[in-house]
Amino acid sequence: MYVIIGFVALVASIIIGFTMHGGKLAALAQISEFIIIGGAGLSSLLAATSFKRVIAIMKDTIGLLKPDPFSRAAYIELLQTLHEISNLSRREGLLALESHVERPEFSDIFERFPLFSRNRHAVAFLCDSLRLVIMGGVGIYELQEMMDEDIRTHDEDVKRNPSLVSRIGDAMPGFGIVAAVLGVVVTMQAINGPPEQIGHKVGAALVGTFLGVLLCYGVFSPIAMALEARAEASVSYLICLKAGISAFAQGMSPILVVEFARRSIEPEVRPTFQEIEGVVKGRSMASDEDHSAAA
C-alpha cells in the first residue's frame, strides 16, 4: 500500500511542478526514450544474471503491493503454531509430530494458521529442524548450528534481488545520457530544419536524461530499499522460529517455547506476553472442548 502511495505522490509532485512552470505533459511522452532506457536496463539485467532471477525480481517487486507477510498478525500465528506443536508433543510424544513434519501440506495444525503455512521457506525450516529433533542423536548446539547455516544461506539468497535492482538503478542515469546523446545526434541531422523542430528534438533528448535520473532515485532506489527491508524481515522471521525450536528441543514447556520465540521478535511487531497468553489459552480451551465433544 505504501509503495503505491509513494509512487503516486512522486508522479503527482512532478506533474504538478512541471505544469506550474508552464510545461506541457505531451513533451514528456517520448516513447523512444522509454524504449532506449528501459530496453538497455532490462538487457543489462539479463546479461548480469539468469532469466529465472529476473522473474524472481519481478515477483518480489509485485509482492511489495501485497500485505506484509511479516506483520504482527503473522508473528502471532507463528507463535500459535509453535505452541500447538509443543502442546501436541507434550501430550502425545514426539512421534505424534511425525505426520505433520513429513507432510506439512496435509497438517491440520498448519492448516489452522494460513499466514504461517503460506510461507513455504518457514514451513520447510520448521519441519526440517523438527525432523532432526524427532530422529534424536543431534545435540542442541549442532541443531542450532544447522539452523544458523540455513538462515545464513537464506539471507544471502533473498538479498541478491535487492542488490541487483540497486545496481540497475545506479546505471539508469548512464542510460539516460545514452538516450540524450542519441537524441542530440538526431537533432544534428535536422539542424537545417525550422527552429520549432529543432527545439522539439532537443527537448526529447533532455527527457532521456530526466528519465534516467528519475528512474534511478525515484523508482529503482526505493524499490531496492523496500525489497531489502522485506528480505531482512524474512530473516528475522526465521530467527524467531529458531529461538522457539531451540527451546522446544531442550524440552521446555509450550508457554516457554512461545516466550523464547516472542523475545526474539523486533519490538515494532512484537505482541505482548498477555496478548499471546490470551490467544494460546483461548485456543487450548477450544481444543479441550473439541476433544471432550469427540469423546
C-alpha Rg, in Å? 27 Å
Contiguous low-pLDDT stretches (5 residues minimum) are 288-295
- Helix and strand element order: HHHHHHHHHHHHH
Helix content: over 70%
Q: So how many helices?
A: 13
Mean pLDDT: 89
Give the strand content: under 5%
Q: What's the domain count?
A: 1
* Bulk shape: elongated
Please report the distance between the alpha carbons of the first and last residues.
47 Å
* Most strands sheet: none
- Which structural category do the helix and sheet elements fall into? mainly alpha
Number of strands: 0
Give a structural overview.
This protein has 295 residues and is mainly alpha-helical. It has one domain (70-289). It is 80% helix and 0% strand. The protein is built from 13 helices and no strands. Helix 4 (72-92) runs antiparallel to helix 12. It starts with a helix and ends with a helix. Mean pLDDT is 89; it is low at 288-295.
Secondary-structure blueprint of this entry?
Elements: H1 2-20, H2 31-48, H3 51-63, H4 72-92, H5 98-102, H6 108-111, H7 114-117, H8 120-135, H9 140-158, H10 160-189, H11 195-249, H12 254-263, H13 273-294
